[in-house]
């Protein structure tokens, strides 16, 4: 069996797919906002002699949140790099078990990151941690959103583990 005779896979549906889509949309909106902010700030440097105050801080927060917003959707759509050089000749069921195992590892890593970031968000809130720069924006909320995005990514990975084990992928 080669990689070309895989059976078609139905697109994911349900609450995890809806959540992943909403997070990806929010990530795209954040990325567009960052692009607009950067363009406006550069334009103001040329026209008015100065940028938007705190543009670097806002771009850092927005870019990070954009990337995190795309993780669950990318996982759900299996838009990752697959290297199956050594497993191509194995039986389909064994390939599915290997895919389930590695997706379970991914889910575990994402769940661990979600938990650690949730702890980090609580600590940042308790200590009043802020960005270092002109604005001094509190960052607990961005860390909490990141934790939520990692948790959603873990859920998307768990979705695939179940599908692999039921041989639906």
UniProtKB/TrEMBL annotation:
One of its GO terms (molecular function) is transmembrane transporter activity. Keywords: Cell inner membrane, Cell membrane, Membrane, Transmembrane, Transmembrane helix, Transport. The keyword Transmembrane helix applies. Residues 36-165 form the Tripartite ATP-independent periplasmic transporters DctQ component domain. It holds the Pfam family DctQ. The chain crosses the membrane at residues 16-38, 58-76, 97-119, 139-162. The keyword Ribonucleoprotein does not apply. It is found in: Cell inner membrane; Cell membrane. GO terms for cellular component: plasma membrane. It is a multi-pass membrane protein. Belongs to the TRAP transporter small permease family. The complex comprises the extracytoplasmic solute receptor protein and the two transmembrane proteins. Part of the tripartite ATP-independent periplasmic (TRAP) transport system. This is TRAP transporter small permease protein.
């Amino acid at each position: 069996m080669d990689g070309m005779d895989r059976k078609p896979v139905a697109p994911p549906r349900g609450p995890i797919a809806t959540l992943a889509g909403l997070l990806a949309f929010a990530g795209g909106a954040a990325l567009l906002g960052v692009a607009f902010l950067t363009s406006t700030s550069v334009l103001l440097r040329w026209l008015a002699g100065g940028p938007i105050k705190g543009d670097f801080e806002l771009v850092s927060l927005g870019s990070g949140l954009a990337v995190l917003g795309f993780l669950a959707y990318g996982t759900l759509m299996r838009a990752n790099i697959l290297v199956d050089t050594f497993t191509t000749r194995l039986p389909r069921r064994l390939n599915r078990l290997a895919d389930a195992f590695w997706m379970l590892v991914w889910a575990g890593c994402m769940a661990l990151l979600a938990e650690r970031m949730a702890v980090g968000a609580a600590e940042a809130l308790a200590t009043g941690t802020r960005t270092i720069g002109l604005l001094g924006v509190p960052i607990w909320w961005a860390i909490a959103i990141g934790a939520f995005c990692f948790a959603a990514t873990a859920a998307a990975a768990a979705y695939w583990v179940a599908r692999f084990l039921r041989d639906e992928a």
